[in-house]
């Protein structure tokens, strides 16, 4: 007697119940596997993007916004801080190093970050080809940008003002690609790295015109108009005071040069500590005694996890509820099969089949349903995760690795198996209590 063949035939005996059980169970498995994978990938991506950054110092505002903007580069900055003031923090013996960053432009939605050579060391970034930026207007791009834009060594492009892909005017300066980094699966992959001087030069408002809403140059037009009017009204006196104006202009230019050098600003300073003890005192000292703000990325991201964790837990509990419903459906399907085919089962007993063989027949059917549902559920979860990751890539310009954790998958499989086995144990109760003589004589 081939119990497996009989189980397969019983599997097709009630196709509607079988299909319903597989459908509901596969949906619950897809939700469980998908939400676990999404949460794990999200946390790992956030933690990897921290690199060796222990503290971020920036303008006063929301500390979470400061971390999202300066570490993860997915939010707008809280403002700028004086570069000279930020460098004074590095005199603290508890601070090992500080890396300044300054940004405000983008290319096709990818942020252009002005910084120092120590920035790449925070993420262990290695050059795939080319070199690191050394001169103004030289840039090195992450692997994601190279793949998405097709930029290569020697190519040039114009940056756009602002952090949004659209809406900002293009700068006149051409940036040249001199390096491409290896994939790091961190925030480095979607950044355009250059020197601080490049960002300052591009945003030099004296050499760059301002634009109206229609895209017209308005500052230069105003300047030429005022210059013409001044020339018309003061033509008779211009020669008389020429030497005096030249002398005053030279003094103002010199004064402006010193002032500009002194007032250079950055977006934030990324700081690494020498020892964990600095976490207890340094941030509080900066927040209380300076006009700047210190934020701890790990602490702020943990708060973010608490906010997003509510949604994750809600979806997880919904998936558990659907899993319970699916197991109830499987139990009903198996129980109805045992009750409806009680005469056939009793006849099999009379021809030599024992109780254990009948139990195996029901168990095979239940396990077959769970196996098919598990495969379909995992496939559905991967399809859903793929589209979610594509949406994240489009919105945040960040590629997340599509990895299926074996540990999470194994836990879900064990949970589903236990629930199905429990349904099978309930369904085989009529077989254990079967009265063959009554069933064969049609007595109830």
Write the layout of secondary structure elements.
Layout (H helix, E strand, L loop, with lengths): L2 H9 L3 H36 L4 E5 L3 H10 L8 E2 H6 L6 E13 L2 E6 L3 H4 L4 E4 L7 E4 L1 H7 L6 E6 L8 E12 L9 E5 H7 L16 H15 L1 H4 L3 H21 L2 E2 L1 E6 L4 H12 L2 E4 L1 H44 L1 H9 L4 H42 L9 H22 L1 H4 L3 H5 L4
Parallel strand pairs: 4-9, 6-8
Antiparallel strand pairs: 1-11, 1-12, 2-10, 3-4, 3-7, 3-11, 5-8, 6-9, 7-8
Helix pairs in contact: 1-14, 2-12, 2-14, 2-15, 3-12, 12-14, 12-15, 14-15
Overall description:
This protein is of the alpha+beta class and 444 residues long. It folds into 2 domains: 3-47 and 302-440, no CATH class; 51-300, no CATH class. It is elongated. It is built from 17 helices and 12 strands. Strand 3 and strand 4 (110-115) form a beta hairpin. The strands form 2 sheets. Strands 3-4-9-6-8-7 form a 6-stranded mixed barrel. 31% of the residues are buried.
